[in-house]
Amino acid sequence: MQVPATFEYERADSVPHAIALLERYGPEARIVAGGHSLIPMMKLRLAQPEALIDINGLAGELGRIAVEGGELAVGALVRHAELLESETATDLFPIFRDAERVIADPIVRNRGTVGGSLCQGDPSEDLPAVFAALRATAVIQGPGGLRAVPVREFHRGPYETAVEPNELLVQLRVPVTPGTGSAYEKVERRAGDWPVAAAGAVLTVADGVITQAGIGLTAVGAENFCAPEAERHLIGRPPAAEAFAEAGRIAAGHCEPHADQRGPADYKRHLAAELTRRALTRAAGRI
Amino acid sequence: MRITVTVNGQPHTRDVEPRLLLVHFLRDELDLTGTHWGCDTSNCGVCTVRLDGVPVKSCTVLAVMADGHEVTTVEGLERDGELDAVQKGFVECHGLQCGFCTPGMLLTARWLLDRDPDPDEGRIREAISGQLCRCTGYENIVRSIRWAAEQEARS
């Protein structure tokens, strides 16, 4: 039987209350929402927080999906299942539908949250690659108010993010640009598993050429979950097979995958190239 | 910490440690052993219960998180001594085999049919993809759920 070590448990009744609790308990406190990454780690004693601050009661403040000011706003407490079922989100950005359908399984998706995925910062997490491809902004709240951090600067290393111990991720904001298509491609060993490798692509085309490109990669050791050199290669070119294949090769060249039980490094690098190519092709078809 | 959880319509108040998992609360505190406990890693899905109507894996939910909320376990599926259509389907189509994954399968199947009364095989397989059957008896489980859907469509 796996049982977490002892901890204090507090329930937050507002975002400022959650922040006050974080300040009271200090850096060894953790926010718990879905808990589907944190609680298994606590059971294995890989994480031993001294206090858990439960924000599940804050759905009114943190559980919304809406388009506002030319951006899609996704609250940190939005569950995976809610993002998958949100036509507002998935019609604008089909990459969410592609990715969410292959994140864990339907029961886990009922509980796990978007913000939790970002904050866990697992190097194989799907949503950091998705939001990196989308060039989203993370909105973080602390005692001094709100601050915005690009998702591409949000992850500082494995399990390490820009969120300070007395802060809370409250929202992700995705710019809505006309003429944009998006897609996500993942290879996993079995239903619900972590990716062997996965790639997300977001393309904006105007007057027959690519004006903006976003490529997100996960589980392959890509810095900040993205591939800026490959993105640059695409700008100004027509959306065509040759350019997508070359972007895939460039992206794979800048990955640092590790061999593990999911496969050898060269296989993962091959997947990075191929999945990038496929995601770009599918994204272009959706513009 | 003192919590009150409504399980299958009955409120239960207990003093529990925050680290107690919902699955153990149900099994050890309330003696509701229909909720099984398997892999301990949110993978196998045998511990699935409904929390405020939504299926969750109770090995990854703290009992304190269910305080003030409603839980339905497999014991809560029957109504007035009558088995739920999904329970009947598992009997009719031999969806049971060893029975270990059955409680979670039943609750997930009920949830699926509540949302989609006429799911095709693909939809059923997707819905139960978070539940592992160690007998690999998926064919009959899928048939059982289809049977329940057809039975409910007729009545």
Quick overview:
Chain A has 287 residues and is of the alpha+beta class.
The shape of chain A, in one word, is: globular
- CA-based gyration radius of chain B: 15 Å
Q: Termini of chain A, distance in Å?
A: 50 Å
Characterize the main sheet of chain A. 5 strands, antiparallel
Question: Which oligomeric state applies?
Answer: heterodimer
In terms of DSSP E residues, the strand content of chain A is 25-35%
**Beta strand % of chain B:** 5-15%
Fraction of residues in helix of chain A? 25-40%
**Which stretches of chain B are low in confidence, meaning pLDDT under 50 for 5 or more residues running?**
none
The greatest inter-chain interface is formed by: A-B, 28 and 27 residues
Write the H/E string of chain A, N to C.
EHEHEHEEHHHHHHEEEEEEEEHHH
CATH topology of the largest domain in chain A: Uridine Diphospho-n-acetylenolpyruvylglucosamine Reductase, domain 3
Rg of chain A computed from alpha carbons, rounded to a whole number of angstroms: 19 Å
Pfam families (chain A): CO_deh_flav_C, FAD_binding_5
Protein name (chain A): Xanthine dehydrogenase family protein subunit M
InterPro entries (chain A): CO_DH_flav_C, CO_DH_flav_C_dom_sf, Diverse_Substr_Oxidored, FAD-bd_PCMH, FAD-bd_PCMH-like_sf, FAD-bd_PCMH_sub1, FAD-bd_PCMH_sub2, Mopterin_DH_FAD-bd
Keywords (chain A): FAD, Flavoprotein, Oxidoreductase
Question: What report would you give on this structure?
Answer:
Chain B: InterPro entries: 2Fe-2S-bd, 2Fe-2S-bd_dom_sf, 2Fe-2S_ferredoxin-like_sf, 2Fe-2S_ferredoxin-type, Beta-grasp_dom_sf, Diverse_Oxidoreductases. Chain B: Keywords: 2Fe-2S, Iron, Iron-sulfur, Metal-binding, Oxidoreductase. Chain B: It comes from Actinomadura luzonensis. Chain B: Residues 1-77 form the 2Fe-2S ferredoxin-type domain. The complex is a heterodimer of chains A (287) and B (155). With 287 residues, chain A is α+β, with helices and mostly antiparallel strands. Chain A folds into three domains: 8-57, Uridine Diphospho-n-acetylenolpyruvylglucosamine Reductase, domain 2 (2-Layer Sandwich), CATH 3.30.43.10; 59-175, Uridine Diphospho-n-acetylenolpyruvylglucosamine Reductase, domain 3; 180-285, CO dehydrogenase flavoprotein, C-terminal domain (Enolase-like, domain 1, 2-Layer Sandwich). Chain A contains twelve helices and 13 strands. In chain A, strand 4 and strand 5 form a beta hairpin. In chain A, helix 11 runs antiparallel to helix 12 (265-285). The radius of gyration of chain A is 19 Å and the shape is globular. Chain A starts with 7 loop residues before the first strand and ends with a helix. The model of chain A has no long low-confidence stretch (mean pLDDT 97). Chain B contains five helices and five strands. Helix content of chain B is 35%, strand content 15%. Chain B has helices at residues 22-29, 85-92, 102-115, 121-127, 138-154, and strands at residues 2-7, 10-15, 48-51, 54-57, 70-72. In chain B, strands 2-1-5-3-4 form a five-stranded mixed beta sheet, covered by helices on one side. In chain B, helix 2 crosses helix 5. Chain B is α+β, with helices and mostly antiparallel strands.
